[in-house]
Amino acid sequence: MRLALLTDLHANREALAACLAHAAQQKADQYAFMGDFVGYGADPAWVVQTVMDYVARGAIAVQGNHDYSVTRPARPQMHAEAREVIEWTRGQLAPAQLDFLAELPLTRQLGNMLFVHASAYDPIKWEYVTGVEQAERSLRATASKLVFSGHVHAPALFRRADDGRVGKHQPSPNSRLVLQPQHQYLAIPGAVGQPRDANNAACYALYDDATRELCYFRVPYDHGAAARRVIGAGLPIVFAMRLVEGI
């Protein structure tokens, strides 16, 4: 199985289309979407419908905090500009699309792999896994050998060795890593729709369960067009600038 791993799509049609086309070129035969299909971007209906179509064909999908928020009262922790986009997004989605987001699970299991938007330790708390401490907490919460998650908008890989020690690896663009069966890993592919690591190219990853090879990809796309859509929709300009600057 060649599994494409996509997270934090954030209503960015151009970025998602580019990543899906790239994954098809890589001969991906399964897809996992790790949440945050809406928020920030200008094409929530197209993005959600695309994910729904993939799920109908057998893809995996879990709920992100923006997906959760768009189907419920806004959380006080969410900053004002993000709440503005969430409220706008509700009016852009069809009832079936809102139902799809509301009914998504927080986690999914496939063999020895666990899929979650944030931390496996307490998924509904939406903890950011930004360092070794958070990664260890997430990994210790599951017996799965591989945890795939998102939420932090930058690619990363954590390894919990068979002796319990946890370390972090910063994958470089288009890097290929072989995961050892005796260790436990937490892989964050980076954001499809809003990268925040000073590189505006979209991020996703591909895992081959036969070779145990994990590949991180950067996919250039028309971020200018995506930014213009944000501005044209009347959404906060900061979210257009993030697409251009990659921060």
Automatic annotation (TrEMBL):
UniProt xrefs under Pfam families: Metallophos_2
Record family assignment: Belongs to the metallophosphoesterase superfamily. YfcE family.
Descriptive protein name: Metallophosphoesterase family protein
All residue ranges annotated as the Calcineurin-like phosphoesterase domain in the record: 1-208
